[in-house]
Amino acid sequence: MGKAKVRKFLIICACVLAALAVAIALTLPYSIKHETIQEAMRDAVLHEINRVPFFGLSVDPSLISGFIVTGILLGVAALIRIFAIPRFKLQPGKFQLLIEEWVGLFVRLSMANSPHQPEPVGAYIFAAGSYIFTGTMFELFGVQALTTEGHSISLPAPLADINGAIAMGVFSYLFILIGGIRANKARGVGRTLKEFSLPISMSFRLFGALLSGMLTTELVYYYISLSFVLPVVIGILFTVLHALIQAYVLTMLTSVYFGEVTEPPIPKEKKKKIKKEKAVAGGEA
To answer: Whole-angstrom Cα distance, residue 159 to residue 242?
Structure first.
């Protein structure tokens, strides 16, 4: 029985490989490329060639992706607010549980890392995390657009463009700065400016992670011999992992630094008490 199963498995694998070989042989004459692999990889980073028209302008395809993702999120949020939330019950259903768990994830994150002012940071990281996750997953759907040269391309993730990643990093830093000013005035500004490299690290972490997945998928799709089955596994693996990891990392960093800059100063009496306790502990030692 065991040998029969092994033989059956080997036959299936051989049939799959044969089918792939036939598909490669049949499609190879039609695999017309309008750019070299070097140009494709370079354009995936700089977006100099494959630009799309937008109201008479030539823009990066990531900008169109950003508009689409933003519209989807706003539309879904409006529908949930109008039709779903008024019907929420004390005993939640599956959809209500999903929404509550998604919101609760960011609420718990803000409470743990920014206990002094959890409300504003909870709202911000919910919006930022949802945008990063949805924007990264958007790449999986392969929405097509025509370039200014008439070629068809799949729209990339909004944050796969360095400008989008920088905008997200800088906006998160400004949000932390405003929170520090609101909570601690000049002291909050000093605490925030101390982390001057934060927007750079946030921006390039987002850009580098999303770009690496996009370049790997682009490389696999470019060669016709690799463009069967394998891109599905690689595309889903890189996209889902990056969507989850980058949404978590940015929201975690934002909530942690927001908690630090909004932490109220320790009163002088408490400082003296702490110093006295340390001195006593040192004498006993």
So the answer is: 11
Average pLDDT (210-216) is: 70
Structure confidence at residue 239 as a pLDDT band (50, 70, 90)? confident
Task: Name the amino acid, one letter, at 194.
Answer: K
Question: Do the Cβ atoms of 19 and 28 come closer than 8 Å?
Answer: no
Nearest CA-CA partner of 206 in 155, 173, 243: 243
Q: What is the C-alpha to C-alpha distance for residues 126 and 106, in angstroms, rounded to an integer?
A: 6
Is 6 inside a domain boundary? Answer: no
CA-based nearest residue to 239, from 144, 121, 160, 145: 160
Crossing angle of helices 61-79/162-184, nearest 10°?
50
High-pLDDT (> 70) share of the chain, %: 72
CA pair distance 207, 258, nearest whole angstrom: 22
Nearest to 230 by CA among 50, 16, 37: 16
- Residue 114's pLDDT band, with cuts at 50, 70 and 90, is very high
List of residues 6+ apart from 231 with CB closer than 8 A: 217, 220, 221
Domain that holds residue 29: 23-265
In the chain, the number of structural domains is 1
Q: Considering the domain boundaries, does residue 2 fall inside one?
A: no
Closest CA to 38 of 46, 30, 28, 26: 46
Question: Does 8 reside within a domain?
Answer: no
* Structural domain contains residue 172: yes
Q: Under a CB-based contact definition with an 8 Å cutoff, are residues 238 and 213 in contact?
A: yes
Helix (H) or strand (E) holding 153: strand 152-154
Between 283 and 52, the higher pLDDT residue = 52
* pLDDT single digits (tens) 148-169: 888 888 888 898 888 889 999 9
Q: What is the arithmetic mean of pLDDT over 244-259? A: 92
Q: What is the pTM of this model?
A: 0.79
